[in-house]
Each structure stands twice: as structure tokens, then as C-alpha cells.
Amino acid sequence: MVISTSSHNVHLTDKLCEYIQGALRERFRRFGDHVVSVDARLEAIDGRRDRHDIKAIIRVDLRNHRALATEIVDDSLYAAIRRSATDSARAVARQLSHSRQVNGQRPLEKFHALGRYTAANI
Question: pTM of the entire structure?
Fold first, then answer.
């Protein structure tokens, strides 16, 4: 999984890039090989009372050539990153669940995936 970060009117420090990559790796770890790349973009937009709000846009490319994007606006930089990472992971889980239903595949059972029991015993 390739993670890239970019910004518009927001200064990206090394610590902030590490936080973004850590949050995204933590949320997308369970999807394994289904996620090809994740692009995170932070933008400062004009907010209320001369303050800037942060818009976090996360685009996820999946193995089946489908792309998902989520966008969150928050007044806190770290909250926007956390919320957008969580919403993106939820959208990927929903998409993978839908593609399994459409293709007629069912999620692997615990013991069937490990090969302990034959399919007739499940």
C-alpha cells in the first residue's frame, strides 16, 4: 500500500506526515492487498470568525480499479485526519462487502480459511 500526502495552504511537517501515514496504515491494515494506494490531501479553507477550517480529502484506489474518496471539514487538523481516515476505512469495508455479495463470494469462515475442517463440516 502506497500512501502519499499533499497540502494546499497547510504546512506539512515531518511529524504531521508521520501522523497521517500512521493513522492511515492503522485504519487500512485489515484490508490487506485490496488497497493499492491512499492519497491524503489537506486544505485550509476560510471558516467562521477569521479562522481557517481544515478539509481532509482521502482517495483510496482498490485492487479492482475502483476509487473511493471521502472529504471531511473540521476546525481541528488532527480531528479532520482521524475522522477522514475512519470514514474512508468504513467506505472501503462497505465496498468490499458489496463486491463480495455481487460476485457471489462469501467472507471466509474462521476455520475454513485455516483449513482445519472441510467445507462439509462447517
Answer: 0.75
